[in-house]
Structure formats: C-alpha cells, structure tokens
Amino acid sequence: MLREIRPAIVLLLLLTAITGLAYPLVMTAIAGVIFPTQAQGSLIEKDGKVIGSALIGQEFKEDKYFHGRPSATLAPDPNDSSKTVSAPYNAANSGGSNLGPTSKALNDRVKEDVEKLKAENPSAEVPIDLVTTSASGLDPDISPEAALFQVPRVAKARNLPEAQVRQLVTDNTKGRFAGVLGEPRVNVLALNLALDGTSK
Length: 200
Description:
The protein is of the alpha+beta class. The protein has 7 helices and 7 strands. The protein has helices at residues 2-34, 36-39, 104-120, 144-149, 151-158, 162-171, 188-198, and strands at 43-46, 49-53, 74-77, 80-86, 141-142, 173-174, 185-187. Helix 5 packs across helix 6 (162-171). The relative contact order is 0.12.
C-alpha cells in the first residue's frame, strides 16, 4: 500500500515546493526588479518619511485639506474586543458597510453628510462620491467634481485664490487608463501634498 501512496506524497511535496515556495519567490523577485515602487506598496515619502500609499486613502479632517470618500472600515474596539469601532481606511479590515439602499442608518448618515457639504458650498450640487463609501473602504481617489466642489473651502482656509486651487485640482487629475478604461480621478494625498507645496 505504501508503494501506491508514495508517488502521490512525492508529487504533493514537489508541487507544494514549486507552486507554494519557488513560484511566489521568483515572481516577487521579478516584480521587485521590474516594478520596484509598486512592489513595495506604492509608498509616498515626504522629507524622507513614508506618509502614505498612492493605493490606500487616508483621513483628512482639517478644512485646509481636500477630503476623500467616506470609509466604512472598522477595527476591534480597544475597550471591548467583542465589538468594533470606526477606523477609516483600515487596510487590515478592508470592506464596505454592507448597508443597502433601504438601510435607515445609511440614509441618515448620507443625509447628514449632504447637509454638512451643502453648508460648505451651497451653490454647487454635492458629488455622490463625497457621501458614499467605496466597496473596499480604502479608495484613495475622488472624482474631479468632488475635488472642485471642495475648492472654496480649501482656498478660504489657506487664504489662496480659488483659481490657483482649482488649477492644482486640474494639474492632479488623472485621465482614463489608455484613454478608455475607468473614470478621471484625483488622488487625494497627492493633491494635498501639492497644496502643501504651494503654501510654503
């Protein structure tokens, strides 16, 4: 019986070594050589310190910064491990809220956010991505319309001309991939770094 099982065990060990160890290590090494920045997480540095990633959003609350999409990610409650608390852009717990269009909690939160944003810029329509979360809860980008909506607040907080801040949004807007895939977008962290650069 051992004679019949031995080839299966040898094959299992061989395939495990090839597909579970050798292949991932080779692919990681190739990615590190061909795409070194992306392989390390597309990290963004400022003054020699890592301040974020181009792939993961982060929370900006101050009026002098552009704000990203709401994030529904959670983390364990430090006071009670059986509960969770809001932890925006928590990459360890990526995911949406799973609240649907009939959810009272979701509708109340969206209405509250819309009212806050209307007070901020009463003359413009509130862009949908400023009040809805992405599927991952980690989206680092907003639409150009969402960035332009925030221009009056940011310009006022920084005492800059609106036209200058609007130009920064335009300069940091990325188009569709290959001209056809996806939608135009603005990376919030990159835009805020460019904004900090103009305010010095």
